[in-house]
Amino acid sequence: MAAAQKDDAVVSGAVKVGLAPMAGFTDMPFRILCGERGADFAVSEMISATALTRGDAKTADLAATDPREKPCALQIFGHDPATVAEAAAALAGSRPLAIEINMGCPVKKIVSSGDGSALMKDPDLAGKITEAASRAAHAAGLPLWVKIRAGWKKGEVTAPAFADALVSAGADRITVHGRTRDQMYAPSSDNGVIRAVKEKIGKRAEVFGNGDVDGPESAIRMIKETGCDGLLVGRAALGDPWIFGRIKAALAGEDTPPLPTKEERVSAAIRLLRDVCALYGEERGVRESRGRAARFIKGIKGSAAVRDRLNHAETEAEFKDILSRLI
Predict the structure, then answer these.
(1) pLDDT of 204 strictly over 50
(2) CB-CB contact of 309 with 294 (8 Å)
(3) Could you write out the three-class secondary structure of the chain?
(4) What pLDDT is recorded for position 58?
(5) pLDDT number for residue 60
(6) pLDDT at position 8 over 60
(7) Domain extent listing, the chain
């Protein structure tokens, strides 16, 4: 592909492109895969501050990192300042890239407990949580990030004022998803909200954009339209970790790499299967790999029948053999 036209307003070594957190997907094996293919950093799946401080073993597993992966921020959620601060201090011991608080998750189970985007309805509490967590993170020499949405409901965009208060409380970076909580993941993310947050905060903290970045064009458009310091890629990276390399090349005004071949996609799915099984054990690993592999092989001739067979595979060897037949 021809080199993207160089644009000094877009091309900058300071622009970072990271992997956004997604429950059930952005575990260590997938983060490593994305880092190898161009992601500058990743954010872990959400970690419950309450469960972590109570010593829940499964929750602690979510915080596991690996020397092979690019820098990883650990994301926590909770609504009690003391508990969130305690969790931040505990996670700081593993020396992540940063501690991030999720105040943007729109899922009903999270919101109904007063966590995630529910905190956007209570700026005072959100500020107290940020202040307590920032003290814990900063004491360990780590930055404190906060993930937010445009607001609680459509027509009430509160992100600029909300983000401003969080920065005053100690946040070093605000990541903005350009939809309100009730919009979930549709319609399109609003870059205007991200721009408004950046204008409000100025240089007091970094602002990263999130939402609908699905390739070089949308990445460049987000940076041009918002002035954000960096961006995160979420759902578009599932099955396509090569997207980071394409975006980074475009931002640098370089030739964008070609789309992955069928062989590369299948090989990556097999590699991920192996690493997921190694991490979780064969039974869980095979179960976890069904949806992941389906995204890698989507659009390949014969993939529909293969997906059906994968859903009935019980061993790693059987799963691998089914995938290999696509090549």
Answers:
(1) yes
(2) no
(3) CCCCCCCCCCCCCCCEEEECCCCCCCCHHHHHHHHHCCCCEEECCCEEHHHHHCCCHHHHHHCCCCCCCCCEEEEEECCCHHHHHHHHHHHHCCCCCCEEEEECCCCHHHHCCCCHHHHHHCHHHHHHHHHHHHHHHHHCCCCEEEEEEEECCCCCCCHHHHHHHHHHCCCCEEEEEEEEHHHCCCCCCCHHHHHHHHHHHCCCCEEEEECCCCCHHHHHHHHHHHCCCEEEECHHHCCCCCHHHHHHHHHCCCCCCCCCCHHHHHHHHHHHHHHHHHHHCHHHHHHHHHHHHHHHHCCCCCHHHHHHHHCCCCCHHHHHHHHHCCC
(4) 85
(5) 82
(6) no
(7) 16-251, 262-324
| Residues labelled catalytic | 105
Mean model confidence pLDDT for the chain:
94
Query: In the CATH hierarchy, which top-level class contains the domain 262-324?
Result: mainly alpha
Residues 93-104 have pLDDT tens digits of 999 999 999 999
Assign domain 16-251 to its CATH architecture.
Answer: Alpha-Beta Barrel (3.20)
According to the model, what pLDDT value does residue 13 have?
A: 55
**Both tokens assigned to 321:** 């053999």
